[in-house]
Amino acid sequence: MSVTGRGTRKKKSSLLRKLLVLIVVLLVILVAVIALWYLLAGRLPKPIPTPPGPERPNAQPASCPDVQVVVVPGTWESSATDDPYNPTANPASLMLNVSRPLQQQFESSRADVYTVPYVAQFSNPVAFPPDGQQSYNNSRGAGTAATNDILIRRHAECPLTSFLLTGFSQGAVIAGDVASSIGAGDGPVPADLVLGVGLIADGRRDPAAATNVGQPVAGVGAELSLAGLQIPGITMTGQRPGGFGELADRAVEICAPTDGICDAPAQALKPSNWIGSGLRLLEYNNNPVHAMYNSYVVDDSGTTATQWIAGWAAEKIEAAPTPAHS
Questions:
Q1: pTM for the complete prediction?
Q2: Among this protein's residues, is 63 annotated catalytic?
Q3: 77: CATH
Q4: Structure confidence by residue, pLDDT tens digits, 150-165
């Protein structure tokens, strides 16, 4: 064999080794970038169970309301610095059509209506450059913490006050998750003090877990549809374990047909369902129904979704106990 041939093979071997090293380095960098991407985007925090409180007294301070209403707005309808008693972060927030009528109907001593201020964002995980929004996981985690916080504080101050939870979209997921923990016995307040849970367009809607109001809807919440899917900052958590537990008979859900947030195809990621799920995507394209619950009619009387929730909440408040004051 000639010297030239051996030299050529050595050069090729050296080039191949360098190429393999380069590929390994690039793979390591890619793994590191993906790991950093996930960490920066945020992971969904684990709920922290709250131990049962002390035995309840016979009376509570005069400053305590009889009922604490907790309202959780949807994505882009709140901010962490919003005023919980006069929200202005988004003047078009859907839940204002529930909270304001209740504030007008009841004295604050009877029903304190508190709108949870939280980041309420949902960033696009593949936006480049980044869109500057908080991830769904971070926003949802912050909203859950803020919701638990008002419940914990109010119950500590006012152990006889009853509670009512309601929310829309991301806020419905948050309110529903907190209600689920209460119904399981490890939430921020005892289940017997919760008057009701009213959710609109819940991304974790399970048709069997609550009373469904309005037209029949064949689908499920998007987080059930895409259960197990995890991309940076977005975790699809599936069903709520145990549903609403002790609160099942007090939980109501409203979902408009073709709203992909709460009326998504069941088990969409299952290969045998891909064709049917793909066809359903056509229903969601440029479909404004998710933003139209203030006009979505849910009964023969022409009652809209927000009117129904406000009326349902008012009935719960009117029938609520009136604790003695010390």
A1: 0.85
A2: no
A3: 3.40.50.1820
A4: 999 999 999 999 999 9
Q: Find, among 133, 152, 183, 139, the residue nearest to 50 by Cα.
A: 152
The catalytic residue among 123, 169, 180, 225 is 169
Mean pLDDT of all residues in the chain?
Answer: 87
Q: Residue 290 catalytic?
A: yes
Domain count, the chain: 1
**Full domain range(s) for residue 194:** 42-51+60-319
- Cβ–Cβ < 8 Å for 201, 191: no
- DSSP annotation of 99 reads H
DSSP at 289: G
71-122 confidence digits (pLDDT tens): 999 999 999 999 999 999 999 999 999 999 999 999 999 999 999 999 999 8
Contact of 210 with 243, CB cutoff 8 Å:
yes
Structure tokens at 31: 């793994």
259 is catalytic: yes
Mean pLDDT value across residues 24-49 = 52
